[in-house]
UniProtKB/TrEMBL annotation:
Transmembrane segments: none annotated. Keywords: FAD, Flavoprotein, Oxidoreductase. InterPro entries: CobZ (IPR012831), FAD-dep_OxRdtase_2_FAD-bd (IPR003953), FAD-oxidoreductase_2 (IPR050315), FAD/NAD-bd_sf (IPR036188), Succ_DH/fumarate_Rdtase_cat_sf (IPR027477). This is FAD-dependent tricarballylate dehydrogenase TcuA.
Length: 462
């Protein structure tokens, strides 16, 4: 397509929602996806659920999940660092998104069980994010959306208050197009580890990148350099603690470990450093990447015993196992005496465990221990003992393009008349810090649809 009405940069959930919405409004749409076709979809192919407000049961979701409760959950994890207007827009609109998703090929399944506790709040995709991405591409194709893979956008030319051209390379050739409107949905900069290191310092070189290696922030940097309004802190990101044996890039959601609430977590000196039982895991898993990043050599270690092994989602790599804590310490490279002392102090601080409930806040807490463990605190006494190493796994960064409620970008106080952004590239407009399970898909779906609608209206009028 030599002159599309709309160029959409990126090929994940937000880009696809924008493309489908714009195509249904009659626009000719071209998606420029940096990845090869087998790896299309960005981080969306690693997702598995969508956090959704609803009044009463909706699709696979049970009970209800109100706007106010959803917002309270978001404010708790972000520490209030959010744009409440945009947050409420995302939350409120999510209810209508679920049936829209079903109408466009996405299928859902009952919630996963265990530590996730999400049957009321999060709708799980049948087949995971890869199936969602494939369904959307099939729908987009039927609507006439064109896709170019291995198309790396290098520059958007801004002339005053509009984008006049898009430059990209494909198979060694340089191409230029002049769309009427542009939607940027190309993610954060997390795969550029040099950029991460500039923000975080040398510690970032030890981080693992959970998602696609293609989100390097090229378009983001290009637009910020030209004065497009930015939002967010470059050190803030969706960072979780993942299995230390995960690959450098693209390990995906399977490398996440959900055992922390039932464990103690120590650093390389075998010392605990945070409350493992602070809240249910979907509201706390995303803080652990930063916690581990602050430890020596950016590594942590999970210690559990036999009675906790079946309480969480199975890990992709088997845990390290030993019949004694001393042997476990040796296998994990930890100081044995210090680990035994830490576990002993923890065990001594545990009290009545009769109220233990693995999927709810149970108040089974330690006494006189710093830091405390405020839920699920049971002594680690039953062999064999198990351990996992933890590393910081970055999913996406929050430095991004600032948008308004129409997903439009701006320079100063002036809107860029034909530029919109959706998904992780603008998520920092809502996520100042922290993360809420499934909320990235909410942002991408809501603002992808908004951006597609607005871009199509602009293109159709011009």
């Amino acid at each position: 397509m030599t002159s599309p009405d709309i160029a959409i940069i990126g090929g994940g959930n937000a880009a696809l929602c924008a493309a489908i919405t714009a195509a249904e409004a009659g626009a000719r749409v071209l998606i420029l996806e940096t990845a090869p076709k087998p790896y299309r979809g960005g981080n969306s192919r690693h997702t598995r659920n969508f956090r959704c407000m609803h009044h009463g049961p909706l699709g696979p979701l049970v009970d209800s999940y109100t706007e106010e409760e959803y917002l309270a959950d978001l404010i708790k994890v972000t520490g209030g660092k959010t744009d409440e207007g945009l947050a409420r827009l995302a939350i409120r609109t999510s209810e209508e998104c679920l049936p829209w998703m079903e109408e466009h090929g996405v299928r859902f399944q009952p919630s996963l069980s265990g530590t996730l506790s999400l049957a009321r709040t999060n709708a799980f995709f049948l087949g995971g994010g890869k199936s969602l991405v494939n369904a959307y591409y099939l729908t987009a194709e039927k609507l006439g959306v064109q896709v170019e893979y291995e198309a790396a956008v290098t520059h958007l030319e801004l002339d005053d208050d509009r984008v006049t051209r898009v430059d990209y390379t494909r198979h060694g050739q340089t191409h230029t197009i002049t769309p009427k409107a542009v939607v940027v949905a190309s993610g954060g900069f997390q795969a550029d580890t040099d950029w991460l290191a500039r923000a975080w310092g040398p510690a970032a070189k030890n981080f693992l990148i959970r998602g696609t290696p293609y989100n390097r922030g090229v378009v983001l940097a290009d637009l910020l350099d030209q004065g497009v309004e930015q939002v967010g802190d470059p050190t803030q990101c969706h960072a979780v603690a993942i299995d230390g044996r995960a690959p450098k890039f693209d390990g995906g959601i399977v490398t996440r470990l959900d055992c922390v609430p039932f464990s103690i977590v120590v650093n390389k000196d075998a010392q605990r450093f945070y409350d493992e039982g602070e809240d249910v895991w979907p509201k706390r898993y995303a803080i652990w990447g930063r916690l581990v990043a602050a430890q020596p050599e950016q590594v942590g270690y999970v210690i559990i015993d036999a009675k906790s092994l079946e309480l969480f989602m199975p890990s992709v790599f088997p845990p390290i196992q030993a019949d004694t804590l001393e042997d476990l310490a040796e296998k994990m490279g930890l100081p044995a005496d210090a680990l035994v002392q830490t576990v002993s102090a923890f065990n001594d601080a545990c009290g009545d465990t009769s109220g233990f409930h693995p999927t709810e806040l149970d108040g089974v807490t330690t006494t006189g221990l710093t830091p405390p463990k405020t839920n699920w605190a049971r002594p680690i006494t039953e062999p064999p003992f198990y351990g996992y190493s933890l590393r910081t796994g970055v999913t996406f960064t929050y430095l991004g393009l600032k948008v308004d409620e129409t997903a439009q970008c701006a320079i100063g106080n002036r809107p860029v008349t034909n530029l919109w952004a959706a998904g992780e590239t603008m998520a920092g407009s809502i996520l100042g810090q922290g993360y809420l399970a499934g909320f990235g898909m909410t942002i991408g779906t809501v603002f992808g649809r908004i951006a597609g609608k607005e871009a199509a209206a602009h293109a159709n009028a011009n």
